[in-house]
What does this fold into?
Amino acid sequence: MKTIGLFRHAKSDWHDARARDFDRPLNQRGRIGAALMGVHIREEGTRWDRVIASPAARVTETIECAAQAAHSRIPINWDRRIYLASSATLLDLLREQDGELRSILMIGHNPGLEDLIFDLVPDDGSSPLRETVEAKFPTATFAILEADVERWRDLEDGTARIVHLTRPRDLDPRLGPQSA
It folds into this structure.
């Protein structure tokens, strides 16, 4: 079995209209959400064999805030292909991984992460967590999928189930959509 963690970057700042999308930092709400989720991810307890992340500023800052709050440092494998990647690209990246790895945490962007869930987890009505993702996979959301495959290259559409999903607002209602 393979375990896939998906962590979407936290809320970014849109105030500088001249900034390249790749260079957008987090806003204050994003920094709070990233820190909260960092503690949650540590407390959830999965040991990640590899962490792969987009090098975009909002992802690197999400990781920094999360790691600082969780009092942990983990080696990151930066991969520019994750930046604004499609589900197909993310799936290809997972399939390239060493078969000995049991768990991978991928930190990146929507719509790719959300679409990866839709592709890997069957839409058969048996997953309330998938239905939650269908409503929205907001910034700083963390999900865990389990796939009954022996090698990463064997990942195919419909081969996983979503076993964990936490949004920042699940931990602090002030971080929900009604907040600015």
